[in-house]
Amino acid sequence: MSFYFIFYASRFRDRLPGYLVPEFYNITLWPRLKPNPNSNLYIFTGWSAVQFECLEATDLILIHSNKLNYTEMKDEHFVSLTSEGVSVPNIKSTWLQLQTQYLVIQLMGKLTPGQKYQLHAQFTGELADDLAGFYRSEYKEDGVTKIVATSQMHPTNARKTFPCFDEPAIKAVFHLTLIHPTGTIALSNGMEMGKKDPDDLCQTLLQTTFEATEKMSTYLLAIIVSDYAHLILSQGVSGNQIGHWFHAIKEGQGNYALNVTGPILDFFQAYYNISYPLRKSDQIALPDFYFGAMENWGLVTYRETNLLYDPETSSNSNKETTVTIIAHELAHMWFGNLVTLRWWNEVWLNEGFASYVSYLGADYAEPDWNVKDLIVLDDVQKVFAVDALVSSHPLTSKEDSINLPGQIMEQFDTISYSKGAAVLRMLSDFLSESVFKQGLSFILLWLKLFDQKQLFPPLSTELSQTFFLCTGIVSQNHFLLVPESNVTVESFGFFRYEWMIPVRWMKDGATKDIWWLLEKKGVTGPSWVLANINVTGYYRVNYDLGNWERLFSQFNTDHQVIPLINRAQLVDDAFNLASIHPNLRSAVYCSAVAAGGEAEWNFTWSQLQDATVASEANKLMLALACSNNTQLLERYLEFTLDPAKIRKQDATAVITAVANNRAGQNLTWQFVTKNWEHMFTEYGVGSFSFASLISGVTARFSTPQELQQEEHKDAGFGSAALAVDQALERTQANIKWVQRNKQDVLQWFRSQTGN
């Protein structure tokens, strides 16, 4: 076996070669909801067959597989190969290539171009609690622990569930059967076709078969076995079935999400000018889930806090989160699922687009909220802070630079989501929303008509954050948190940082026609001006001192002349360029824990254990990090290593919350430093969001000593490597800010206090 590995290593690549094209998979999975008596592990067993067509003669089959144990066939190989009506080459050897996560099948002869083959496998995997692939989630009901078998295939974990061609552009049809205990329900992407007692198995099991899926990517497959209850209604416009699934919950918590799903689906059908392509639209709330939600086609999965809303205890902010996230995921049903990105270097097209139109869908469902304005606060201003770092990156990466799972995970960051949304919003604004929609609809219809089912080559939209100077002479510059930072070719690529910038502006209160800054500099007439009306452009705006003073004067005389969003923009831009009621319950909880001692902390902890509303539990969980008692904070940090106390999906949020507490800042860095290797190797990327962890823990660093700790941290950071670079840069900027402003701030405070 080692001989074959060495001999054929040069033939392996990080990407599949493309000469084998799957048509469909037949998959049967049997998750065990009780631990194996011998190993004490939760496992699943599976049987799969994939039919593929050979496009080029080859004697090597590469298919993705990760953490699966195969039952050897009669010839002692991991798989068997068949083809109808023709002979097939014998299998010479099979083995697992760990780095690229391939199951390798070496043949004694070559496959024939144009011929179709079937690859069969039988395997066992662990139904682990790692939040990746086919995994285990747990919750308690009336003191009894319940098990849910659920899935998260995105982006590269379908291969952890069954052997497959696990790349987004390699689409196929999936025929799925689930074996599960009586008293439980099985869910997947398609409608249930029927139940029966499985052959040769005990009578306490059921076998549920689902209709064939649409042709789709492996990462969109969803598989769930639980004892959940559900709410169902029929969608009026398209007639498809809308279902929401939950474990035993207080009556009414699922109603809001159910009621807004139909209108949002209606909106997107009209927006895309394409009917919803499936017969059902299920959504399910899970106790343990890595992402906020996942757009599995026909069965969208959510964290409980993002789907459930309690009118009595949840805040308006929780309600806005629920409707916006639902809109984000349902937007993917067309843009992402029906038409899919070719490769992960274009994540921003998928996630940036869904982030942008989620505000449109939410606005349709809740027209009185002005939801569309929130994109400026929630996305544009948030991503400005990241994009001002030298360690930021363009929207699009070179395709051959993103190959391994860790590199792929790095693409799902604030730049892809929020900057992508901001740039697409700017594009829609200067084209006009109607033209933008028309172009989008044409693209989707064209790809659907010709069955392309993958996105056209990448758009060239590497717009960098720019710094806009106004009044008289207009110029653009690359805005950086630390202006003297050295931007190298390696950090951003071959970009000149000169863009054709659409500028919506007003003069003396009168809105003017859009104006384009086509070069580094342009000229406009003298007067007070306000640029970037409603912050539709992806750039900050700076003015000369005279214009700032005239704008402030306008604020004092009649502030309503300036649009509402621009009032917030002026404050945010001024603060950054100078380098310097729904949440009341959260503030009260935090203040109580901070002012109290161990008794108050323990009481809050007990309230967290008993909380039945996901949003309320989240408030209590974060409030526990507000304590000024370092022993309690140390205890709370240790809880994050015990999934029985803090769910793995919440560990990053707890650690970051403690780090944001002045009393816990040093404790948290010591804790992460001490336990990094354990967290990274024991839990993996499916549990802790390591990039968020690094960013959160180091956010307050502002001394040379803290910088030195970061620079000398020698643990492998994996998918968090970019976050480490950003943390180092942010710390350096914080140090310079303190050095530059410490005495001035101190003197001001002394003047105000009389000391």
TrEMBL record:
It is an enzyme of class 3 (hydrolase). Its cofactor is Zn(2+). Belongs to the peptidase M1 family. Residues 21-220 form the Aminopeptidase N-like N-terminal domain. GO terms for biological process: peptide catabolic process; proteolysis. Residues 256-443 form the Peptidase M1 membrane alanine aminopeptidase domain. Binds 1 zinc ion per subunit. The record marks 417 as: Transition state stabilizer. The active site is at residue 329. It is found in: Membrane. Zn(2+) binds at residues 328, 332, 351. This is Aminopeptidase. It is a single-pass type II membrane protein. Its main location: membrane. Residues 579-732 form the ERAP1-like C-terminal domain. Its EC number is 3.4.11.-. PANTHER family: AMINOPEPTIDASE, PROTEASE M1 ZINC METALLOPROTEASE. Transmembrane segments: none annotated. One of its GO terms (cellular component) is cytoplasm. Keywords: Aminopeptidase, Glycoprotein, Hydrolase, Membrane, Metal-binding, Metalloprotease, Protease, Signal-anchor, Transmembrane, Transmembrane helix, Zinc. Pfam families: ERAP1_C, Peptidase_M1, Peptidase_M1_N. It comes from the Eukaryota. GO terms for molecular function: metalloaminopeptidase activity; peptide binding; zinc ion binding.
